[in-house]
Design goal:
The structure is a single chain. The longest helix is centred in the middle third of the chain and has 21 residues, at 95-115. The chain has a 4-stranded mixed beta sheet with strand order 1-4-2-3. By secondary structure, it is an alpha+beta fold. β2 (82-87), α3 and β3 (124-128) form a beta-alpha-beta unit. The chain has a single domain (39-162), classed as OmpA-like domain (60s Ribosomal Protein L30, Chain: A, 2-Layer Sandwich). It is built from 4 helices and 4 strands.
Length: 171
């Protein structure tokens, strides 16, 4: 434990939670939240958004860059929080291929955020889920043309933001 010149434990962010007990020593919180600020409503809503992808692609489309820029700003506001970037694919293709594609999608979003200047990029965690977590169940007996809209909803990257001491939902 570091102590200041006054002999008291150091509290870098001045929130009353000593750094040795503070899960977020760079941003003020409360004792109840272990020194971490709670996410504001706008940030929670932002984190619920999805980045969609074209079929068989892992390129971030221009239409999603404003969303990702807003997430970059939110990450600046919460410098101690960790962002889980969750990649997904539709069912077309093998499970192995879709797993790799979902991982590439998550990595593409991470790389964009890093390019935009996210501080401490090691707090950006990626995970690919392949085709295992569809948002929309698709009738696989129908033609690809008839199921395109439903499958497109499953080709996405989602987010989860949490404090460093809490477990991210990696399942």
């Amino acid at each position: 434990m570091q102590v200041g010149p006054d002999g008291c434990p150091v509290d870098s962010d001045g929130d009353g939670v000593p750094d040795n007990e503070d899960a977020c020593p760079n941003s003020a919180g409360t004792m109840e939240t272990k020194g971490c600020p709670e996410l504001d409503e706008a940030t929670m809503k932002l984190i619920e958004e999805k980045v969609r992808f074209e079929f068989d692609r892992a390129r971030v489309q221009d239409s999603y860059k404003q969303l990702l820029d807003s997430i970059t700003v939110a990450l600046q506001k919460y410098p101690d929080h960790v962002l889980l970037i969750k990649g997904h694919a539709d069912y077309i293709g093998s499970e192995e291929y879709n797993q790799a594609l979902s991982e590439r999608r998550a990595e593409a979003v991470k790389e964009y955020l890093i390019q935009q200047g996210v501080q401490n990029p090691d707090r950006l965690v990626t995970k690919g889920y392949g085709e295992t977590q569809p948002l929309v169940k698709v009738n696989e007996r129908l033609s690809r043309r008839r199921t395109e809209k439903e499958r497109a909803q499953n080709r996405r990257v989602g987010f989860e933001m949490n404090t460093p001491d809490m477990q991210l939902d990696m399942e």
